[in-house]
Amino acid sequence: FMALSLSVQVIAQDTATVKPASIALRLGMYDFKKTNNTDGLTKSVANYGFQYIQGWNKKVDFVANVNLSTFKYPYYTSLKVPKAYTDKDYVSLDFNLNYKFLTDEHPVVPYITAGMGVGIDRLTYYTAYAPMGAGLQIKANYGSYIFIQATHNAETSNLTKKHNSYSISYSLPIKGKDR
């Protein structure tokens, strides 16, 4: 009986790990909703940036994103923000939690994500948004992952125009495996 209980305990042992701190290169696209009087302004534009990813536990990862892009931000006309006639720099920073439906030991892990972010346009206009969406985490080599994600960035300030964001990123652990 004792040998049976020992084998059950070994089989039931939890082997899931928590993701170590990682840095990722991120490529993405913003997709803004077309509204009245936004002709000549940006509807879709590529962006690039970096991510910091840190597992908090087996099912939750903390993610910080910094994205850079250059475009004509399509503000709502009712805001009376002067229309941009040339592309301007836009930088965004957001903090998110990813809730994973499986642990990192699986080759493909679906997750949902939510957070808060802020962007700055023309070094003058600040926008705030709440990214909410879903993604897939795909296991690569040596603790690296590929992330494919789509979010809806809801308006949380007057200047923000709701938009979707699509991205793919590749992460590398900050510290290599101990040998």
Task: Give a short summary of the structure.
By secondary structure, this protein is mostly beta strands.
How would you describe what is shown here?
- By secondary structure, the protein is mainly beta.
- Helix content is 6%, strand content 55%.
- The protein is built from 1 helix and 8 strands, in the order αββββββββ.
- The chain has an 8-stranded antiparallel barrel.
- The protein is elongated, with a radius of gyration of 20 Å.
- Residues 1-13 have low confidence and may be disordered.
Write the layout of secondary structure elements.
Layout: H1 2-11, E1 22-32, E2 44-55, E3 60-71, E4 88-100, E5 108-121, E6 125-139, E7 145-155, E8 163-173
Give the amount of beta strand, in percent: over 45%
* H-E string: HEEEEEEEE
State the strand order across the main sheet. Answer: 1-2-3-4-5-6-7-8
Structural class determined from secondary elements: mainly beta
Which parts are unreliable, with pLDDT below 50 for 5 consecutive residues or more? 1-13
Please state the overall shape, judged from the principal axes of the Cα atoms.
Answer: elongated
Strands, total number? 8
Radius of gyration (Å): 20 Å
Percent helix, as a range, is under 10%
Number of helices: 1
Main β-sheet, in a few words?
8 strands, antiparallel, barrel
Look at the structure and give the mean pLDDT.
Answer: 85
Give the CA-CA distance, first to last residue.
38 Å
